[in-house]
Specification:
The complex is a heterotrimer of chains A (150), B (336) and C (267). With 150 residues, chain A is an alpha/beta fold. Chain A is built from five helices and four strands; from the N terminus they run E-H-E-H-E-H-E-H-H. Chain C has two domains: 121 residues, no CATH class; 114 residues, no CATH class. The chains are: A alpha/beta (150), B alpha+beta (336), C alpha/beta (267). Chains A and C meet through helix 2, helix 3, strand 4 and helix 5 of A and helix 6, helix 8 and helix 10 of C.
Chain lengths: 150, 336, 267
Amino acid sequence: MSDFEPKVVAFVCNWCTYAGADLTGTSRIKYASNVKIIRFPCTGRIDFMLLLKAFANGADGIIVSGCHPNDCHYTSGNFHAKRRWIMFKELMDFMGIDMNRITFSWVSAAEGARWADVVNSTVTRIRELGPYVSYKELVNKSVEEEVKND
Amino acid sequence: METTRKLIRKQSLEKLYAHLSGSRKIYAPVTAANKQVDYKYNPPYAEVASDHIRSTLSVKNIVFPKVENLFLFTNNRTESTITDIELFKIPEVVLWGAHPCDTAAFDVLRSIFCWDTKDEFFSQRVEKLTVIGFACHKSDDYCFCTSTGLSPDSSKGSDILLSRLQNGDYVADIITEKGNAILDSCPGLFEAAPDEKPVITEVKVKFSHEQVTAKLANAFEHPFWIENSLRCIGCGACAYVCPTCACFDIQDETKGKNGKRYRSWDSCGFGLFTLHTSGHNPRQVQSQRWRQRIMHKFSYMPDRNESLGCVGCGRCSSGCPVDMNISEQLEALQNI
Amino acid sequence: MTNLINRAKELLENGTVKVVIGYEAGPTGLARPAFITDPAKAGKLIYDDRCVQNLAVYLTKAEVKNLGKMAIVSTLPVMRSIMMLISEHQVMGDNIVVLGISTEKELLDIADIGVMKGYIEKCDLRNPEKDRETLAMLNALTPAERFAWWQKEMEKCIKCYACRQACPMCYCIRCTVEVNQPQWIPVQANPHGSTEWHILRAMHLAGRCISCGECGRACPVGIPCHLLTMQLADQVNNYFHVHAGTSDNMTSVLSTYEPNDKESFII
């Protein structure tokens, strides 16, 4: 377990968090390299199925981040996203899927240091939780052992 | 081969189960907490159901799994490799406790899967399968095997058919060489058969399937289809619980460079089943799909496969969320 | 029941409607949906404890719509479904006659959508009692236990989509599960494909599910998938104080917002 390096996928909006992450870099702030950033036009574009896809393809943790409320480039994309995440979180909780593996945050274009914090704290938490074994098992589980043929 | 009849006592039946499970996998019915009966692999004998009328799903999963890989592939930029499925790895399985409708369904499936090119996956699974059928001592209103040319004690598809006697012992009809091999492997469990008749339920004949087939030949445009399928909601439940429905969908699924091609159950009841890429759909509405379901089983299959596409198990009707009762409809169809 | 039959007969005779969607008794004793177009056959209509299906699912089916203007026997869940369908512009309120049935199985006099709204507002809009108990039981488990519980159910799924087809709110001509570019949900009915399918279905019904439980009832293998949408219906009410299907002008919970929506998990 000690050599476990978490794979974290970050879904971020173009206008705030992506620019914020850019600032982290240009400010030469170091942060965990476990994160793979995927840029979206807006948090409103981040379909919940994308998060499931990330887990299915081996992510151990996820970060979803965008503009602070009232700062959305498209006025209300992040408000819509917020409602979606509330429902998604409740559903995932109800199905027993570990919500400690997903960080939802608002990071603006001026918060380079905060982005480093969000990533670092997420990576630390995922490191403690270990690899997301139960979802990986679910993905690899075929139909009944007796009829499977792969 | 000639059928031989033996007696197997209640206690010996458990020993037979233990004996068989020593050398192969056993697929047997188990009653779940919600009273449904489902087939499971290798359940302990104490849990095996013997008093049920029908399991929720048919046993076709054993020869035609709901998902089955056809081959695996790797796609590099310059070359692709295909890995065949190692069919010899398919395990020897004993199907225990299937009723005559379910066992007869294997022949129907064979007439589809092997009518032209032999489907190797299906054939291999059938070859590795030994069937211990149980004649029915119970039935209900949904049962109509006698209308499809079968009976509650039909030995079609069974290697050994067990029928219950009044006292709980069973008579065992050894039907095939596979059945004989089991008899030979544990002769001590079988005794000479008594002259007693087993308890067999009575299933009323509801329609003549020959007459239905004859009527269907000219019924394609009949208003019957719309009138009787308005309540059909177009789910695939009937096809998926059916022991003889064999439609499947083929899909590729990739992950990075690796992928697999598999087939999974499909249903003619779905709107997208016949949708063309052009956007045209030859079966646009549910009545056409319902007609296809009945036509395929009772007209096209007798025509082309020389086999009726239905064994009268009644699952499609008991599992239907809107009570589309197939035997009722067939009864009506023979008189249109 | 005689009231219902008389009313149906009258509506068909005076040409107000072309078809009455209700229940009749099938040969095995189960009640099933019936489509009465001939006033002489109105006597077949029944309403009793066996009549459980949500008939609103037929309001959007092509062949039923082809019959002409409809009257529909409506218990509370059906009325709430109609409200949602009107709100989502799938059904025109003026085009249907609601034959309301009270919880005491009496015919209600529902003259128009406004009256129906008044009736719905007076009703208990919570999830049915036995489902509330199961939900409470599940919510008391640890996440790991809930995961195991649901995985056991998901293994049974055969992807026949009876849950989707039985749902009045699942009227999409092309469901996301059938979109394959990209392939959102694995087609196969393995635990992973089934789990993602049920997540997708529940999410798409968030704020739209009217807690009729039809999806779970329709499931041929007995997966209580209605609990997923019912849990979300509870949460929608908890966070946004809305019960689905209470007016003919519902705004969609997931495509609207309030700036002060409360949550506690976004950092």
